């Protein structure tokens, strides 16, 4: 099974309104509720692709119960979240019908106690030996140490489990130093980590800081990968317009899916780009359109050079 | 006990953000969660004033459970809500710190089935004989017949329990025809009911349509009452600025509180105006500031004429 870690799970709500106008009252015409947090999103895509996946991390309160109830209904997905007292945060995406704009409201994460964090670490150590790969995704809620991901990366490496890290800021900086197998920053995260806005230079620099492989997301322009096996650029066949929510999480799912099937890097990147495109084009934020995925998969252009062994 | 009916209960969330800007992402700095729906708000003010109060109506889902958990922690308040399958709606008030503006997002109410509605009616009939007064408050969720309040008014009158109706639109129009003891429309609701924007003329007309007494809210300018005993105008000592959320519900609580203590109309109106003012001035939307209440109470100006018997 593939293990995904979501320390800051979320109940993601999407509200449809006619047009969002500050200082007025709005009737929400449609409410969509789904489990969220980046690792949860990755897990749902992996499960939809046919993988057995286990979700661990932290969840609490009535919102945490709703997240877990949604997960319980997802085939091939096992809920191994550690319960906490503080309530799982809500995120609200307000979609204006007239403009198509999305306005995001993100609650702060719950306070996590030292004993809750210790309980999670024990659970993580139990789960690692059974995992073919692990993804560490998203922000840290209050109370979780800023070096949390560095410790989780080290534990995975000790257990011999390939580990992908997808976070930002100081947790990313510290996590990279613990030498994860893959990081998947977007352009902003990569620039914040390395100080460089040149993707080629920045991916190289991120590897020098400790990441074994760097897969940088260039948004609608695809992915750039720098690895010991070679460097590649994977580009979708056309610029796809739509809602980018969850596109990065789908890319992570694509990378892990192909990694656990021991496929070569160009195939991993094609799968990641096609899943991203299929997420951008899905009717519902964070879902992916299987038709688009299958149609795009064979048309992703991967160019690059294999390293001299 | 005083009975309040909330057919469309709500989980009221207040989000504080720095400044709400459409099509951007916001970190919510503070989340406040409280039980809502107009009848629930009325009940909480009545309980805070020292009255025994029973809350009935409809609640369901995880959001309904949260509403009920909050109510269970309120002294002097009994939860007699009828459970339904559909989830109680959320309302979100987004307060911008920079401007002080409030942007409201209201989810639609849950679908109510005929058997759920029948179960509520049976519960209401059981509760009525023990009530010293009943307040019917707020909107109707989908599935509840538009003439619902008219039926509830008639049942209260048959049981000899004074009944106050606080709603709008067609439910108000039909409810008024069933001859409630008191209605408490605001200026817009009164104009919609009667077609007149002149408060004096409109209150008179609303009585002609069936309401025994009409207490019209004139916002920061206080209340106008037209009753068989006389006509009065109650005005706060100063124009108070603040958040008007819940001010109307506090006025209803003031009217019911004084009515069940068999106090005369001018005292009822003073209490209603002082509670409204204390709600507008409270730090938290929908709460009331007891210091402001006590300070304003003796300074409300009531002018009017007693009817010739």
From TrEMBL, chains A, B:
Organism, per UniProt? Streptomyces pyxinicus
Q: What is this protein called?
A: 1-phosphofructokinase family hexose kinase
Q: Does the keyword Nucleotide-binding apply?
A: yes
UniProt keywords, alphabetically = ATP-binding, Kinase, Nucleotide-binding, Transferase
Carbohydrate kinase PfkB domain location is 11-285
UniProt keyword Nucleotide-binding present: yes
Entry-linked InterPro entries: Carboh/pur_kinase_PfkB_CS (IPR002173), PfkB_dom (IPR011611), Ribokinase-like (IPR029056), Tagatose/fructose_Pkinase (IPR017583)
- Note one Pfam family from the annotation: PfkB
């Amino acid at each position: 099974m593939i293990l995904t870690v979501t320390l800051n799970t979320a109940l993601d709500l999407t509200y449809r309104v006619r047009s969002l106008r500050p200082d007025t009252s709005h009737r929400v015409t449609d409410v969509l509720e789904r489990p969220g947090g980046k690792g949860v999103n990755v897990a749902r895509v992996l499960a939809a692709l046919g993988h057995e996946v286990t979700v661990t991390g932290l969840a609490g309160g009535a919102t945490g119960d709703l997240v877990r109830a949604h997960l319980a209904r997802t085939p091939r997905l096992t809920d191994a979240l550690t319960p906490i007292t503080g309530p799982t945060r809500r995120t609200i995406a307000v979609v204006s019908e007239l403009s198509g704009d999305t306005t995001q409201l993100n609650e702060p994460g719950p306070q996590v106690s030292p004993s809750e964090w210790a309980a999670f670490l024990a659970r993580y150590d139990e789960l690692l030996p059974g995992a073919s790969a692990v993804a560490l995704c998203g922000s840290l809620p209050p109370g979780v140490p800023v070096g949390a991901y560095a410790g989780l990366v080290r534990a995975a490496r000790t257990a011999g489990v390939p580990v992908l890290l997808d976070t930002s800021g100081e947790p990313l900086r510290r996590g990279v130093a613990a030498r994860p197998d893959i990081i998947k920053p977007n352009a902003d995260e990569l620039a914040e980590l390395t100080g460089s806005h040149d993707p080629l230079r920045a991916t190289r620099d991120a590897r020098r800081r400790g990441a074994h492989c760097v897969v940088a997301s260039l948004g609608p322009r695809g992915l750039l990968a720098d690895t010991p096996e070679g460097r590649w650029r994977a580009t979708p066949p056309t610029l796809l317009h739509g809602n980018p929510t969850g596109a990065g999480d789908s890319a992570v799912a694509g990378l892990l899916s192909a990694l656990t099937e021991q496929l070569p890097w160009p195939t991993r990147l094609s799968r990641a780009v096609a899943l991203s495109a299929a997420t951008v084009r899905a009717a519902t934020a964070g879902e992916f359109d299987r038709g688009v995925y299958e149609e795009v998969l064979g048309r992703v252009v991967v160019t690059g050079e294999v390293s001299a062994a």
